[in-house]
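To the wet lab folks,

You asked to see what we're planning to order before we commit. Fair enough. Below is the target structure as tokens, and below that is the sequence we designed to fit it. If anything looks off to you, flag it before the synthesis order goes out.
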């Protein structure tokens, strides 16, 4: 049912855990499978551009939700905010080698939680 990539990220999630003094937090819940995702961002500056210096997530949910969180954390880490904002829900699912249609909302959740964190960061400034 799940791709190899999904299973691999589910078993060894990257960047999982909390963060002390994050620059931004994004939290989103999903009533369909009860997934809850919290994303923490550390924003750095490089050549005058803000970038994702570090990202951590805490996800309580199904395998697809955990794999999606792990995948988006790898996709956006080190990217400038502008580049990272362009990462879509589809990019996350594609990078995972696709998700079963019933589980697409889980990869949507990861992208949404990330975008929420960026929005909160921008609102704070
Ligand atoms: Zn789910």
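Sequence we intend to order:
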């Amino acid at each position: 049912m799940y791709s190899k990539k999904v299973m691999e990220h589910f078993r060894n999630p990257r960047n999982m855990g909390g963060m002390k003094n994050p620059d931004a937090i994004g939290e989103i819940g999903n009533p369909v499978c009860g997934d809850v995702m919290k994303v923490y961002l550390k924003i750095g500056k490089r050549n005058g551009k803000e970038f994702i210096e570090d990202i951590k997530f805490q996800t309580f949910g199904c395998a697809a939700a955990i794999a999606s969180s792990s995948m988006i954390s790898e996709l956006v880490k080190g990217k400038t905010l502008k580049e990272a904002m362009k990462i879509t829900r589809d990019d996350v699912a594609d990078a995972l080698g696709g998700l079963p249609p019933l589980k697409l909302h889980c990869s949507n959740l990861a992208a949404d939680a990330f975008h929420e964190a960026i929005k909160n960061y921008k609102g704070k400034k």
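Structural context that might help your review: The mean pLDDT is 95. The longest strand covers residues 35-46.

Thanks,
Computational group
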